[in-house]
Amino acid sequence: MESLSIGVIGAGLIGGTLAVHLAGLGHRVRIANSKDPSTLTQFAGVERLTPSWAADAAAGADVVIVSVPENRVAALCAQLAPKLTDDAVVIDTGNYYPNRDGRIDELDNGTPDSVWVAGLLGRPVYKAFNSIIASSLKHNGTHDRAGRIGLAVAGPAGPGKDTVFGLVDQLGFEPVDAGPLADSWRQQPGTPSYCQDFDADRLRAALAATTSDGIAEYHRRRDRITDFAAAAADVAARM
Ligand SMILES: NC(=O)c1ccc[n+]([C@@H]2O[C@H](COP(=O)([O-])OP(=O)(O)OC[C@H]3O[C@@H](n4cnc5c(N)ncnc54)[C@H](OP(=O)(O)O)[C@@H]3O)[C@@H](O)[C@H]2O)c1
Fold first, then answer.
1. Which of 59, 100, 202, 220 is least crowded, fewest Cβ atoms below 10 Å from its Cβ?
2. Whose C-alpha lies nearest to ligand 1, atom 37?
3. Three-state secondary-structure class, residue 236
4. Could you tell me which of 104, 31, 105, 38 has the C-alpha nearest to residue 72?
5. From the CB of 32, is ligand 1 less than 6 Å away?
6. What distance in Å separates the CA atoms of residue 148 and residue 195, rounded to the nearest whole number?
7. Atom 9 in ligand 1: residue holding the nearest Cα
8. What is the pLDDT tens value at each position of the chain, 239 positions in all?
9. Angle at 53 between CA 55 and CA 64, to 5 degrees
10. Beta bridge partners of 176
11. Cα–Cα distance between 125 and 118 in angstroms, integer?
12. Which strand (E) or helix (H) includes residue 105?
């Protein structure tokens, strides 16, 4: 895969992990949080990784990864949308947790999380890296393809999806086509495959077994998490 310019918006557990790994793979990465780039001291010395303002990270990038809590997405998308090139491949890692994010009516009414993000940006979006715990994303990628962890990728077929598949593969995971973005509710929190580190075959089977009559139960499982600080601390301890 050629070297891509990649903007990572969100410098937390997922965005930070992706940015460091992608820079290590030879891509040119800009990373942003919600503040001045000088606050991103944790990335000092990482080759090909440049702290940036969010809008600058998105401007002209081949790939833009949005990795922020859902309650920050609407304002962020308004800022990013004018900066994206027509060809930019946008990846959304986000998950809606009402106990963390507060209520977002459109998501409560059944719109899949990333369909909502695509609408806010007014362009196609790929949902990927949302269904793996950050510590597993950091440590468990491998180039031994036998039995490696599968990662669901939902979004429109075409060159954009090929690019996302290529990045997933480069990061050491097996890309699994989870269909169009409208089907991405199958990889949301609480579903059978969510953060299970299944291999590709088991992931395909779990996605297929994720049915619309289970949605109320998936949401109940999602809503059992209430202490997000403790959950984040637990993941961070495994990083
Ligand atoms: N943690 C996991 O294992 C995991 C796994 C899969 C998916 N996810 C999902 O991926 C998303 C990110 O999760 P995370 O755990 O990486 O979150 P996190 O550790 O809390 O980090 C969130 C990052 O987003 C940044 N941010 C917030 N608003 C922003 C804005 N307007 N512009 C630019 N940056 C902004 C924050 O910067 P500031 O510090 O400046 O606010 C922070 O760097 C969430 O939707 C989460 O549900 C998480």
1. 220
2. 33
3. helix
4. 104
5. yes
6. 14
7. 94
8. 899 999 999 999 999 999 999 999 999 999 999 999 999 999 999 999 999 999 999 999 999 999 999 999 999 999 999 999 999 999 999 999 999 999 999 999 999 999 999 999 999 999 999 999 999 999 999 999 999 999 999 999 999 999 999 999 999 999 999 999 999 999 999 999 999 999 999 999 999 999 999 999 999 999 999 999 999 999 999 99
9. 50
10. 152
11. 5
12. helix 105-108
* 147, two tokens: 């039995």
What is the whole-number distance in angstroms between the Cα of residue 203 and the centre of ligand 1?
25
Residue with tokens 């196609």: 124
What are the φ/ψ torsions at residue 22 (nearest 5 degrees)? -65, -40
What is the token pair recorded at 181?
């973005």
Contact 89, 160 (CB under 8 A): yes
Residue nearest to atom 29 of ligand 1 (CA): 34
Determine whether the shortest distance from the Cβ of 136 to ligand 1 is under 6 A. no
Q: Please name which of 115, 80, 79, 78 lies closest in space to residue 94, comparing C-alpha atoms.
A: 115
**Alpha-carbon span 28 to 208, nearest angstrom:** 36
